Amino acid sequence: MIPQSFIQDLLNRIDIVDVVGNYVQLKKGGANLMGLCPFHSEKSPSFTVSPTKQFYHCFGCGAHGTAISFLMEYSGLGFIEAVKDLAQNAGMTVPENDDRLPPAQRAAYQAKSLALSDAMTQACDFYRNQLRSAPTAIAYLKGRGLTGEIAARFGLGYAPEGWDSLRAVFPDYEQSALAEAGLVIDKSDEEGHHRKRYDRFRERIMFPIRNTKGQVIGFGGRVMGEGEPKYLNSPETPLFQKGSELYGLFEARQAIRDAGYALVTEGYMDVVALAQLGFPQVVATLGTACTPTHVQKLLRQTDHVIFSFDGDKAGRRAARRALDASLPHASDNKTIKFLFLPTEHDPDSYIRERGSDAFEQQVREAMPLSQFLLNEVTADNNLSSSEDRARAQFDAKPLLQAMPPSALRLQIVRSLAQLTQTTPAEIESLFELSKPIARAKLAPPRSNRQPPVGLERQIMRLLVTHPVLAADLDQAAIAAFAHFAPDNAEMLQLLVTTSKALGPHANFAALAEQLRQTGSEFDAMIAEIAADTESEPESARLELAGAVRQTKMQKLTAELNELSASGLNVEGAGARMRELMLQQEQLRQEAQAEIARRV
User: pTM for this one?
Assistant: First the structure.
């Protein structure tokens, strides 16, 4: 768990203009900077970055957030990854569990990681240079319809023949980093003694695999003629885990946003060839089955993912594994589909034979996840007997159990119930589905509280904009707020507690980031403040003081009215009235003094 104090310090040290400016061309527009929004297609700029608030906001699609959330949305990084990336650029060390390691051990780990990364970068440059003087490899790529431009975009290279070609790049060919990065193989004798070292990749077209930051973390090598394996991939290393990485994602990020969907294929060449043919929004798994991590990574980039597989048995098996990986992330606001081409085609050959428009049509008509799931559980059962219907339900049970409770799951349950002559409630009960929907009333909304209005809204908005003002609120102000806005008292308490925890240097960006992590209900207000013009802290302080006085005055007046209505028969009522009237007079004097200071 990263301490909130570190997050605040990080956001204070970095400049969101520099962070966003690495990805978006920004131009001065008044107090803010403006550019084309990277999260939706637009021709005129509606994306603003505020240097004062350290916040971005798009008036077109509503996207907003801090430098951390920008990296998360744009690069598909997780929260911790985004924080680490920003911290590294700011020269800061993230205090996490590994911070407990002795400094020498932690330094050794960081040095090792840097050595592996440097080795991969140097090897990539070497392979790219080798391609320029390899006519056979160039002819092979041209034969596949690839241009020099697309080869350069994906950093394609060539591993020459010879057992130790990398020796030309690494004079210290025996260094441990080469083996740990998967660039070489150490051959040992029967007793386990190291006997010989040689290059892992030889006479292959090289496809560098990049992480979301563009760093080379592995390679895929393809033979140009006969030979096995057709594709040879880097082994698992500290830099590279196949189940977590997608080939081409770094190159495809912007194209995915522009197209509105990501297309997942089965191989490196599919990705490069489709980019050549006008479909740059394509990625591929790395010689392994699709995993839930792959799906999660894609859904950070887009709400619409399409898996494209060959129509043969192998393609169907791959699609089924992708279905299994997708179910934990299937939700009502995400669209996952499956595209099956004729058995004689892969995406590359299909487009070359039938054209881009025909392939686009195939994409539009891809099979929704719900239909594919039902097809999978009913394909081998004709449903004409009780046994067939029971078997279909048996096959469907683990799939539905893997899905989160949602309207989509309920729709699939209803379709399955109709096919197997049961009811949705019976299926939910038999399958022991978590948080059943069909056999129970829908859960109440998270909160029935009304959005804040009037004075309460004014106070909360001022505190979100300038969180340092929370220190000005006393218990009497909070009690007065709770008296007139009990539904929102919890929100105010969260806001005040969070703001005070950030300390005297709290700012809008740090508070917004912390509120986002708590899943609070301030998002609409934060978006509104991000879109609004800047306000002066001192003016906001005076405005807050006035709003608090009004709130306190209203509470005092309400209590006085209650005492008057009681007829002053309650013991001590007279003394309490005098106390309340004295407090009212103090508030009036404070207001008059404030007016005098302004004049």
Answer: 0.67
